[in-house]
Write a structure and sequence with these properties.
- The chain has five helices and eleven strands; from the N terminus they run ααββββββαββββαβα.
- It is an alpha+beta fold.
- The chain has one domain (about 45-235): 3-Layer(aba) Sandwich (Protein Transport Mog1p, Chain A), CATH 3.40.1000.
- It has a seven-stranded antiparallel β-sheet with strand order 4-5-6-10-9-8-7, sandwiched between helices.
């Protein structure tokens, strides 16, 4: 049986294209304009989230390095540790039947990161089949992600909210899960918790979007596991 598909005729090849192919061929690339202005409430410097230079040095906080957390009744804190590197990569705050996971990133002095992060987040989540919408909250634009939870986790719709604030040379991002993702009254309390956080950017040079380092609180022994981080935060 011959498998030679060489065209030995002198007849021209069929160059007929469908209307859809022509439309794609002739379409001009669409440029998505990214908002690089800082996204923050007007009273950020007085109502938070705060920069380290904006809060009294003597006010009590749980010091996690790049983020400081104000103690509050009913708040449980957990450190998310990357097992491979034993590096603390996020802080999770369990409060009012909700979970607020926060990270702080280095940012330029004059421009913000949240506009670009929202665009990238929307593209990523949409490619994974999630439904994305954008809402306006007290902090500014919020990204709401709706997806189907796996059957082993009970199934049903899962709703997650992404919020963020651009500060001086940093961006603080929060991921809201649980009751606060759908209950406006509970979300208001979780946002208050978010606004009490303090970001310690430091003076060292850092490229934009790099995670500001976190650490286990002083006096707490880290075992490289999330459980040990949770225990240490509760003791602190």
């Amino acid at each position: 049986m011959s498998t030679d598909h060489t065209n030995t005729t002198d007849e021209p090849e069929d160059t007929t294209a469908s209307a859809e192919e022509l439309a794609v061929r002739d379409a001009e690339p669409v440029e998505i304009e990214i908002d690089e202005s800082k996204s923050a409430p007007e009273d950020r410097d007085t109502a938070g989230p705060f920069d380290a230079a904006e809060v009294p040095a003597m006010r009590p906080y749980v010091d996690l390095g790049g983020i400081k957390v104000a103690p509050r009744e009913g708040l449980q804190l957990r450190l998310e540790v990357e097992e491979r590197t034993n590096r603390v990569v996020a802080v999770s705050l369990d409060y009012r039947e909700s979970l607020l996971q926060v990270q702080a990133f280095a940012a330029p002095k004059t421009t913000g990161l949240w506009g670009r992060v929202r665009s990238e987040l929307t593209q990523q989540m949409t490619s994974q089949g999630a439904q994305i919408s954008e809402e306006s909250g007290v902090l500014g634009p919020e990204v709401v992600v709706r997806s189907q939870a796996p059957a082993e986790q009970g199934g049903g719709e899962r709703i997650v909210r992404f919020v963020a604030v651009d500060g001086p040379r940093w961006m603080l991002r929060g991921v809201i899960m649980g009751k606060a993702a759908t209950d406006a009254a509970v979300r208001e309390q979780v946002i208050e918790l978010f606004r009490e956080l303090v970001v310690v950017r430091g003076d060292q040079p850092m490229p934009p979007s790099e995670l500001i380092p976190l650490r286990v609180p002083a006096g707490v022994q880290a075992a490289g596991q999330q459980g040990s981080g949770q225990q240490g935060a509760q003791q602190a």
